[in-house]
């Protein structure tokens, strides 16, 4: 489904990623681990074409992501839901409105919005918090709104870049359990984290990156950097 083919990315002559080749199948749950600055976020930015590699190519199915013209990038990104550490919610919009807005900007109809938003709110367990604003929600609830927003386009892939970095342990595991549930429904999950406890509990595929290079790729792996 996803192929990183000999990917390198350099900034001012310094390699953030160097000669990475990875193949990720549809429906996998893959944790990408490494210390801050190892290259995890850079790899994910390349997949959504937020940045372009210095060399190498990235394929999503048979589509060469690195060769896509700018006008086609929104269609690529609808296939990939993104979740970040800092939630990126709109403070003046309710939970419902934050998700609805993501549908409005891609031209979804009012009828589609009214049907789909309650469904994803129910999936993340926030149907009773639909009218609350971000500052009325806990950190974990805000992150679940962000996950619902990522899910509302029914993406093939969810990218979660340090999604629990600002959460306490209880909310952290709520979010991880939700990602596992989404994965069980068939969505591919790419989780970038440096949280050792999460990785060692998940017992899923682990790709370890150190100084821009893949140093380990194991099924049922552990964080042993």
Automatic annotation (TrEMBL):
<dbReference type="InterPro" id="IPR003439">
    <property type="entry name" value="ABC_transporter-like_ATP-bd"/>
</dbReference>
<keyword id="KW-0547">Nucleotide-binding</keyword>
<dbReference type="InterPro" id="IPR015854">
    <property type="entry name" value="ABC_transpr_LolD-like"/>
</dbReference>
<dbReference type="InterPro" id="IPR005286">
    <property type="entry name" value="Cell_div_FtsE"/>
</dbReference>
<keyword id="KW-0472">Membrane</keyword>
<dbReference type="Pfam" id="PF00005">
    <property type="entry name" value="ABC_tran"/>
</dbReference>
<keyword id="KW-0131">Cell cycle</keyword>
<keyword id="KW-0132">Cell division</keyword>
<dbReference type="GO" id="GO:0022857">
    <property type="term" value="F:transmembrane transporter activity"/>
</dbReference>
<keyword id="KW-0067">ATP-binding</keyword>
<feature type="domain" description="ABC transporter">
    <location>
        <begin position="2"/>
        <end position="225"/>
    </location>
</feature>
<comment type="subunit">
    <text>Homodimer. Forms a membrane-associated complex with FtsX.</text>
</comment>
<dbReference type="GO" id="GO:0005524">
    <property type="term" value="F:ATP binding"/>
</dbReference>
<comment type="similarity">
    <text>Belongs to the ABC transporter superfamily.</text>
</comment>
<comment type="function">
    <text>Part of the ABC transporter FtsEX involved in cellular division.</text>
</comment>
<dbReference type="InterPro" id="IPR003593">
    <property type="entry name" value="AAA+_ATPase"/>
</dbReference>
<dbReference type="GO" id="GO:0051301">
    <property type="term" value="P:cell division"/>
</dbReference>
<keyword id="KW-1003">Cell membrane</keyword>
<dbReference type="GO" id="GO:0005886">
    <property type="term" value="C:plasma membrane"/>
</dbReference>
<dbReference type="GO" id="GO:0016887">
    <property type="term" value="F:ATP hydrolysis activity"/>
</dbReference>
<dbReference type="InterPro" id="IPR017871">
    <property type="entry name" value="ABC_transporter-like_CS"/>
</dbReference>
<protein>
    <recommendedName>
        <fullName>Cell division ATP-binding protein FtsE</fullName>
    </recommendedName>
</protein>
<dbReference type="InterPro" id="IPR027417">
    <property type="entry name" value="P-loop_NTPase"/>
</dbReference>
